[in-house]
Amino acid sequence: MSKKTDTTRRAIVGATIGVGLGIGTLSLLAPVASLRPKKETSPETEPPKEGDVFTFAIGDNAGKEITFDDLPLEGPAVLAYPKDPKTGVIKSGEKNNLVLLLKLKPEELGEEVKKYAAAGTVCYSAICTHLGCTVGEWDAAKKDFLCPCHKGLFDPRKGAEVIAGPPPRPLPALPISAAGDKPVVAGGFTSPPGVLSGTDTHGGSCTV
Ligand code: FES
């Protein structure tokens, strides 16, 4: 057998083994994937629902219910978790339940945004649609939400549309209404909060 033929044969055998291993590995992974535990839901991880009040997520007042008077006019926004007023459970067990509450002048809000607002107050997901960082900063000059990870800017007056940076879509809105002196949830998020599966994250993710 010539040297060339021998080399070619080894290459074919090697490639065949490679493919075989790939299929074998996949077939081994399939049952493992099906055994992966399903995401548990609990009262703390349930999504916001109509009638939920809001509580401060961080700071000295963490856990305290939020009234409209607690929100500074024109920002900065306040990070909050929904709370079931019947059970008293704060829904802080799910990252995507973290929201931004912001009080603006009602006349500043776009027509579409007004549908989701109450008393000039808007509520959006606080989880960046780029890589999932917390949109925890406020650009006081532009009056926009700022994601510290890659400088994503969102305009709260225009449905949190992306003004700058890499986020691929706006922050979903959480419709609210007024119940006495408090903002309460009036419906589900206008689109799924957080990073959508299929979003090209270039292998990265944020935990900020
Ligand atoms: S994670 Fe927010 S801009 Fe990248």
Helix content: 10-25%
Task: Kindly provide the name of the CATH class of the largest domain.
Answer: Mainly Beta
Report on the biggest sheet: 4 strands, antiparallel
Topology pattern, helix = H, strand = E: HEEEHEEEEEEE
Shape: globular
Structural overview:
- With 208 residues, this protein is of the alpha+beta class.
- It folds into 2 domains: 1-36; 53-185, Rieske [2Fe-2S] iron-sulphur domain (Rieske Iron-sulfur Protein).
- Helices cover 18% and strands 21% of the residues.
- It contains 2 helices and 10 strands.
- The chain has helices at 3-35, 111-114, and strands spanning 53-56, 78-83, 99-103, 121-125, 137-139, 144-147, 152-155, 161-164, 176-179, 182-185.
- The strands form 3 sheets. Strands 1-2-3-4 form a 4-stranded antiparallel beta sheet, with no helix packed on it. It has a 4-stranded antiparallel beta sheet with strand order 5-6-7-8, with no helix packed on it. It has a two-stranded antiparallel ribbon with strand order 9-10.
- β5 (137-139) and β6 form a beta hairpin.
- The radius of gyration is 24 Å and the shape is globular.
- The model is unreliable at 1-33 (pLDDT under 50).
- Bound molecules: FE2/S2 (inorganic) cluster (FES).
- Residues 128, 130-131, 133, 147, 149-150, 152, 165-167, 206 line the site of FE2/S2 (inorganic) cluster.
